[in-house]
Amino acid sequence: QVQLVESGGGLVQAGGSLRLSCAASGRTFRTYVMAWFRQAPGKEREFVVAITSIDSSTYYAGSVKGRFTISRDNAKNTLYLQMSTLKPEDTAVYYCAARSSVVVHTTATEYDYWGQGTQVTVSP
């Protein structure tokens, strides 16, 4: 079992930056593939980026590649998402997710554990 708690969301102007954090409980964080998803009002939950457990390989959705950076600190049981050059279309609730695996998964249903989400709002 792992519990996830996101933080760092807020209101930012277009072109600005935010860093999200996801604190995980448990001693097996390092064995989990971790990901960020987002969900805008009236839309389905969307994959943003994932990072593997073994070598921290990353996989980004095309819409955020070059603007967002995922990282993990296994010593602190924490996942991060550095978001730069934010756009109004990035506005959504951002969720971190975990799955005990060695490969990246990009579908929400493949993840076993979820945080409660943190709101990111980008004004024009």
Number of helices: 0
Would you tell me the overall average pLDDT?
Answer: 95
Give the overall silhouette: globular
Beta fraction of the residues? Answer: over 45%
* Spans of at least 5 consecutive residues with low confidence: none
- Characterize the biggest β-sheet: 7 strands, mixed
What is the number of beta strands?
A: 11
What class do helices, strands and sheet pairing give? mainly beta
Estimated radius of gyration:
13 Å
Percent in helix: under 10%
What is the distance, rounded to the nearest whole angstrom, between the alpha carbons of the first and last residues? 40 Å
List the secondary-structure elements in sequence, H or E: EEEEEEEEEEE
* Quaternary class: single chain
Description:
This protein is mainly β. 0% of the residues lie in helices and 49% in strands. The strands form 2 sheets. Strands 2, 4, 5, 6, 9, 10 and 11 form a 7-stranded mixed β-sheet that branches. A 4-stranded antiparallel β-sheet has the order 1-3-8-7, with no helix packed on it. Strand 7 (68-73) and strand 8 form a beta hairpin. The chain starts with a strand and ends with a strand.
Question: What key attributes describe this structure?
Answer:
four-stranded antiparallel beta sheet; 124 residues; globular; seven-stranded mixed beta sheet; mainly beta
